[in-house]
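Hello forum,

I keep getting stuck at the same step: I have a sequence, I want structure tokens, and every attempt I make locally crashes halfway through. Rather than fight my setup again tonight, could one of you with a working pipeline run this one for me? It's a single chain of 210 residues.
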Amino acid sequence: MDNEKLSLPQYDIPEDIQNAVAITTLDRLYNWGRRSSVWPLMFGLACCAIEMIAAQASRYDMARFGMEVMRPTPRQADMMLVSGTVTKKMAPAIVRLYNQMPEPKYVVAMGACASGGGPFKEGYNVVAGIDKFIPVDVYIPGCPPTPQALIAGLIKLQEKIDKESIRKVRWYRKGPDTMEIPLPILGPDLIDPRRNAEIKMAAAETKEGA
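Reply #2:
Ran it on my machine without issues. Output:
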């Protein structure tokens, strides 16, 4: 084990056993294991996916971070890397994949399109950011971001994992946080079922005004 990452700085370990002993906490040990074995879900949406594929090549070697094992099924993945433009037709499929991923799970929005719609933000068929439907942990700017930017974003995700406490994480709690996200309804426009009450209220006000 890497004593520099696991050992607590306030405890002085004698020099003769520093390479054999580590004094740490359960949180640090638990997070150290998770941060070093993040498995991304293997899918891409648009041009950002080409940069994601390049980052997996030998030149950038994402295996250094334990993230080279891209899984073809959401049931074996714990990180969703949304790489590209999210269309309204694709959004329900992305939410379905997110719901199928086991906890703990994380979402990284790669590029301007996944983060906020990018150059297609005003388009009739594009979602202005995947965070409209699923929670995002890390945003990576760029159009498209380079493989170096992707790796920097994944390092930020590792830093976030390092700060989590096993006593406070959502996947060990009961309540609304563990509920599935309802699938968006694709009609004349994309409707989020979580906004049904708001939509009904606005429709009632419009009817009264008419």
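Helices lie at 3-6, 26-35, 48-55, 91-100, 111-116, 147-162, 196-209. If your local run keeps crashing, start a new thread with the error log.
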